[in-house]
């Protein structure tokens, strides 16, 4: 990550160099933006009284994520145990 040099006659970065930096670090920018949007959506969603259907709809991606993590973690643990038992 390289920051553009400041010009001698300007105390702030030009808009062109800011746009260039944002393009070079697009993944970072999008990730931070997604976090802020998620927090905003969560806060707005808490203001109303969500129904059971809404809770299931919002909880579904989280449930999928947890199941995928289990599918990854369990083979890693079992292969580590097998490797450990073979080396000792």
UniProtKB/TrEMBL annotation:
Which Gene Ontology terms of cellular component type are present?
plasma membrane
User: Which Gene3D superfamilies does this chain map to?
Assistant: Sodium:dicarboxylate symporter (1.10.3860.10)
One Gene Ontology molecular-function label: glutamate:sodium symporter activity
Q: What family is it from?
A: Belongs to the dicarboxylate/amino acid:cation symporter (DAACS) (TC 2.A.23) family.
Q: Which UniProt keywords apply?
A: Membrane, Transmembrane, Transmembrane helix
Membrane-spanning intervals of the chain: 26-47, 67-86
* Keyword Membrane among record annotations: yes
Designated name of the protein: Uncharacterized protein
Domain of life according to the entry: Eukaryota
